Structures are given as structure tokens and as C-alpha cells.
Amino acid sequence: MKVMKPSRLHVGFVYSSKEGMLESLRRGENRNSLGSYSEPSGDLLAECDSDETITAVRDVLAEKYTVFPVESDDRAYLHLQEIRPDLVFNIAERLTGPNRESHIPTLCEMLGIPYTGSDPLTLGICLVKSRAKEILSYYGVPNPAFWVVDSPEELPDGIPLPVIVKPLFEGSSKGIRDNSVILSGEDLTVRVREIIGEYRQPVIIERFLTGREFTVGVLGNWPRLDVLPIVEIDHSRLPAGSSPIYSWEAKWVWDVPEKPLQIFRCPAPIDAALQASIEDVAIRAWRVLRIRDWARIDVRLDEKGQPHILEVNPLPGILPREEENSCLPKAARIAGYSYSDLIHRVVNAALERIDYVHA
């Protein structure tokens, strides 16, 4: 047990800003084969934190703690080594590779600094969708059948359609387009080739579930978990003719702060039995994947109305403005948490977990 002094805790706040990640790339993290800088294109920066989010979280932490903001760039280790905070509040997603969300927690462990959220192994497993699904399947937690391929030539014969095609280790709906639900073998080959060409990583192909879609926010640590009100993604609010999925277009093109897409219903209009079933599968996923402090867990019903895990997000998005349709803060508000309450709830969960006691 670590007994703290009466002074305010020193909290290192580590994030991945768009400008900070760009600067880090320019210093050498995104070199092409000739050693020259290649400006990123497409959706590479989609998971980076907005300046508004960074400011909002920093200001909330400053209500109770002495805060040291740290960009999660190639100098983060040196900054953390110099600061030596009592705790790191981590929302850093970084940019490239299947282990990018594990970078900052790994540095913290090297330096012996406690941090919020799941450990590097869990973060890596959850980002690489097939690894998470393998563990879920071993423990009997329902999730859609899946196949992983490195090229169109590896596509097995007889994959039952419809399926949905995704990059293996991306988030924020990157690579999940309105054309990602596949109804024909020819379209499957084309989409697999497109994703591999754009993202330079394997593709995961999942059986497409035709039922309703939900997301579940969970705070705390076992057995003291707060399961937040369930959010439903209402596909009927999408533009006519679009695929019934929370695609890149639904998240980033059709939904803008000036004209929010009214796609979420919270609390979800479901009966007690379905609510209990969804919460049960989410908590089972939480436990077998060893999630800590907070997460958002995506769930979809099959044709029989049974819930399946789609993805587990142990670094959930926390956009501060209500009109930005960020699911975890939305569910937290319905549960009675302010944005400040949400951030402090995560800090408190981490402090309890690592057995900090204020003198």
C-alpha cells in the first residue's frame, strides 16, 4: 500500500493530439523506404484527440490534482521520466501498428508509474479483433463467426453471406464504410483487396448479424462495476439505402456537431430480459479480457435476438460536447454523471485498484 502525502496528487495526462502526432511523424516516425517523410493521408489521424477533448479532460483533472500534460509522441518516455507523476491518466491511442494503444502503458510500467485503464496486453488484444474474438470464443462469450486473410487469394471457399469486412486492427470505424456489408462473393474479393491496399494489414471478415445494435459503457473494477444505461444505435435514422451499420460515413460524414445525426437512443428501449442479457454478455467479455477502470463494449443481436460481442474498446472516446454523439459520455449523462464526474470516476477506480491511500 502506498500512502500519499497530504499534497495534491501529481497526475500526468497523456494524450494523442492531431498536431502532436503529425510533428512526431515529421521527426521520423513515418519514414518511407527511402528514409524521407511521407505526409499522412486519409483517416490516419481519426483516432487522435481533439484539442477540445484534451482541454476538457485537463481542466477536469485540474479540479483535484496537479496536472502535467504529456503528448504521446516519441519524447513521451523522457517527459514521464522527468515528471514522475503519482498517476498517469491515459487516453493516448497513438497512430500505427497493432500495439499502438499499448505504447504509453508500457512506458509507464517501465518507469513504475501507475496509470488508468487496462494493461498493455489487454489493450493490444482488444485492438487486434481476431485475438479478442479467439479469447471470447474460448470462454464461450458469443461473437460472430470470423475469418482472417492477408490477401484476396487466401479467401476460403463457401463463406456464408452476408458478411462485414474490416481492417484487423483499427478503431473509430476506420475502414468500415457503407459498402463493407457484403452480399456477393465478387464484392467480397473487391472489398478485401481495397482494405488491404489502403491499410496495409490483414482483413477480418465476420458473419453479419442482422439484429439491433447497442453499446455498453462500464466503469470500475470487478466486482464493483457501474454498467451505464445501454445505448442503441438506431439504424432507421441512417440515410435511405445505406447499410445498417455504424460506418465511417455514419460516424464522421453524416453526423456533424452543426447537424447531429439522431442515431442514438439512451436508455435503449428494450425490455428487462434483453437488458439483462446484453449486460451479462458485456460483463463476461470485460472479465475474460481483463478490462480495467473503463470500457465501451459494442453488442449486436443475431437473427434470433441473442446478443453477440462486436468489439471491446478499453480506451473509449470521450468527446465532451453532447451534440458530438460520443457514446460513453452520453450514457454517463443519462446515469447522472457530469463530464467531470465521469473523468473522476475513472481516476478513482484506478486509485482504488492500485491501493493508493491519502494520508
What does this structure look like?
With 359 residues, the chain is α+β, with helices and mostly antiparallel strands. It has three domains: 114 residues, no CATH class; 63 residues, Dna Ligase, domain 1, CATH 3.30.1490; 148 residues, ATP-grasp fold, B domain (D-amino Acid Aminotransferase, Chain A, domain 1, 2-Layer Sandwich), CATH 3.30.470.20. 33% of the residues lie in helices and 20% in strands. It contains eleven helices and 15 strands. The strands form four sheets. Strands 9, 10, 11, 12, 13 and 14 form a six-stranded antiparallel sheet that branches. A hairpin with a 2-residue loop joins strand 9 and strand 10. Helix 3 runs parallel beside helix 4. The protein is globular. The termini are close together.
